[in-house]
Amino acid sequence: MNILVVLAHPDKNSFNYAIAQTCIKQLIENEHSVIFHDLYRENFDPVLNTPEIPKKGVIDEIIKKHCEDLVKSDGIIIVHPNWWGQPPALLKGWIDRVIRPGIAYEFEEEDGGEGVPVGLLKAKTAVVFNTSNTSKERENNIFLDPLETLWKNCIFDLCGVKEFYRKMFRIIVTSTTTERKYWLDEVKTTVGSFFPLANKFE
After folding, report:
1. Is the distance from CB of 119 to CB of 161 less than 8 angstroms?
2. What is the pLDDT of residues 54-106, one digit of tens each?
């Protein structure tokens, strides 16, 4: 299986980076092909310009490559911190530019864009790993967990990816080495659960 892993964190020493590397290692151990995009290392341009907006808009070679990687993926893993209840701006720009009409979704014939789009992605499963310094109670009761709504409802369900799992690790700023090791073991187990040994699919 082709599994797309997208990381959005500027610090290579971050726990997000460790999560992404753990995902990649487990996927390789399970004999999957990994497509990895570290958006900060790639200096991904998040700015969506007017010519790109239409379904048949003009997109550059970098965006074409990202779109191709998304289309051929059988599974998707996203890793990013919770910043103000949102992904980092770089990742939001990736969503704007890559989760595009004709690639991830489209509208039915004679629908001018006012209806509910049809998902196009062939990926069956999406997993999102987040980090946060906000308590679970505050995140759910006061902020209403906006990242769950964004990834599950607004993006993956809309684009046809029906199996969804998201895990938030917290509180990062006060976490211990022991806690982080335990969390990375959980990442490994989660990835192994959703993307087991490749021969199990044959």
Report:
1. yes
2. 999 999 999 999 999 999 999 999 999 999 999 999 999 999 999 999 999 99
pLDDT digits (tens, 9 = 90+) for 17-53: 999 999 999 999 999 999 999 999 999 999 999 999 9
Are 7 and 20 contacting, i.e. CB atoms less than 8 angstroms apart?
yes
Would you give the distance in Å from CA 59 to the centre of its chain? 21
For residue 20, what is the DSSP state? H
Query: What is the rounded distance in angstroms from the CA atom of residue 82 to the CA atom of residue 46?
Result: 18
The span from the CA of 23 to the CA of 187, in Å, is 7
Beta strand pairing status for 105-106 and 118-119? antiparallel
Longest Cα–Cα distance of the chain, Å, equals: 56
Instruction: Measure the CA–CA gap between 154 and 201, rounded to whole angstroms.
Output: 29
**Rounded distance between C-alpha atoms, residue 159 and residue 23, angstroms:** 23
In order, the DSSP letters of 96-120 are: HHHS-BTTTEEPPTT--SSSPPEE-
Task: Produce one character per residue of 86-108: b if its CB has 16 or more CB atoms within 10 Å, e if not.
Answer: ebbebbbbbbebbbbbebbbeee
| Separation CA 195–CA 125 (nearest Å) | 9
Bridge partners (DSSP) of residue 34 are 3
The size of the chain, in residues, is: 202
